Amino acid sequence: MLFVFYHHIISVFPDWVDFFKAFNPFAEIFVLISGFMVGMVYLHREGGAAALLARAQKIFSAYFIIALPAGIGAALIGTKREPVLDAIVNVLSFRLDPTAIGILKFYGFMFLLLPIILPLYRANKLTTLLVSAILFSSTTYVTHVISPVNEDPLLSLLFALPQWQLFFMIGIFLGDLHRSQRLVGLTFYVSVALIFLIGIAVDAHFGLTSDGSKWPYSFEKFFNLLWTLPLMLLILLALYKALQHSAVLDVILNVGRNSLLAFLLSEIVRLSVKFVGVVFAVDPPIVWQQSIGLFGVVLVTFVLWLYQSHWKRLLTLALPLAGR
User: Fold this and answer.
1) Using CA atoms in the order 15, 203, 183, 250, what is the torsion angle rounded to 10 degrees?
2) Count of alpha carbons within 13 Å of 27, Cβ hemisphere only?
3) Which of 10, 114, 249, 309 sits 20 to 30 Å CA-CA off 160?
4) Which residues of 121-155 are buried (b: 16+ CB within 10 A; e: fewer)?
5) Is the peptide bond before 83 cis (omega within 30 degrees of 0)?
6) How far apart are CA 161 and CA 159, in angstroms?
7) Residue 98 · residue 91 · CB < 8 Å
8) Which residues of 22-56 are buried (b: 16+ CB within 10 A; e: fewer)?
9) CA-CA distance, 204 to 181, in Å (whole number)?
10) Considering all CA atoms of the chain, what is the largest pairwise distance in Å, rounded to the nearest integer?
11) Rounded-to-integer distance, Cα 296 and Cα 246, Å
């Protein structure tokens, strides 16, 4: 999540340098881990439909809390200067996405569909995973054939949903295996190593052509992911091992414990940086762009640590009093 936030914040500059075009598996890792947690928790919970639907409602609400003001602001001070009412309707109908947290739309729809998907998965895991892979392959192929898909936010979303669901479903599968203590072992390590070798060989064969685009997806990005995702997971594991006895780890893990709030806060930071850049025509050198991105990550991490350590308890006490 912190890598994603950094990437979002530095993208506000018009001539920024994207160092992660050939190595950018961060969003996929987040979706995979989300599916993993669903496979660990919701898959084996009886009568969990209400909780899933409530989660979907929270996700959509969180997205619109940021997207609507951003859309209105873009209509008032942006280059297009469209009517405010049109901007509101376009955001609500997904015809406009003025944010960098469009992935929340995917999560909202996935949690709406999980009360249907999870029973199907429990009934026949192999068939469900096969259908998931076919959906990914077919929609990814279509996005190569129909170029306007990339230009229409609604079409892009409709095609992205069956593309991103593959990583979510793989996560559910792995989470289910882990819950039954059948995931980690020799087969797992050999499989990951083979996937890494195949991915880097195919990606190198095509000249490492991935441009980092994820919305909608491409086969080039998928082959790139086959080696970058295992490598990034290995790096994250090494970082965790190095920090697991450090107090720093608790500060970082607050971002994951409050994931939805973290996304909203990161987008507020990104939009604030963008607003300053537009109003004051700020276009800092590359080093400053990277520094601003890192500062945004540190700020999100610190504020969420304060929230978890102090503000959350105070809010819990204050809200019932306000209700009375």
Assistant:
1) -20
2) 25
3) 10
4) beeeeeebbeebeebbeebbeebeeeeebeeebeb
5) no
6) 6
7) yes
8) eebbbbbbbbbbbbbebbbebbeeeebeeebeebb
9) 35
10) 66
11) 22
Q: Running DSSP on this structure, what letter comes out for residue 216?
A: S
Tokens 């994951």: give the residue.
256
Single-letter residue type at 75: A
Query: How many other CB atoms are found less than 10 A from the CB of residue 284?
Result: 13
One-letter amino acid for residue 131 of the chain: V
- CA 75, CA 140: separation in Å to the nearest integer? 32
Backbone angles phi, psi at 141, to 5 degrees: -65, -45
| pLDDT tens digits, 2-45 | 999 998 898 888 776 666 777 889 989 999 999 999 999 999 88
Q: Is the pTM of this model over 0.85?
A: yes
CA dist 246 → 239, 241, 255, 294 (Å):
11, 10, 16, 21
Unique residue bearing structure tokens 């997205």? 63
Tokens 């190593």 -> residue: 193
SS3 41: coil
Distance from C-alpha of 28 to C-alpha of 34, rounded to nearest angstrom: 10
Q: How many residues does the chain have?
A: 324
What is the band of 208 on the pLDDT scale with cuts at 50, 70, 90? Answer: confident
Average pLDDT rounded to a whole number, residues 216-240: 91
Q: Alpha carbon of 12 to those of 8, 102, 105, 258, 265: distances in Å?
A: 7, 15, 21, 24, 16
- The CA distances from residue 130 to 30, 127, 169, in Å, are 22, 5, 10
Q: Check if the beta carbon of residue 69 is closer than 8 Å to that of residue 274.
A: no
- What's the CA gap between 128 and 120, in Å, rounded? 7
Q: In 3-state terms, what secondary structure has residue 128?
A: helix
Could you give the CA distance from residue 176 to residue 129 in angstroms, rounded to a whole number?
Answer: 13
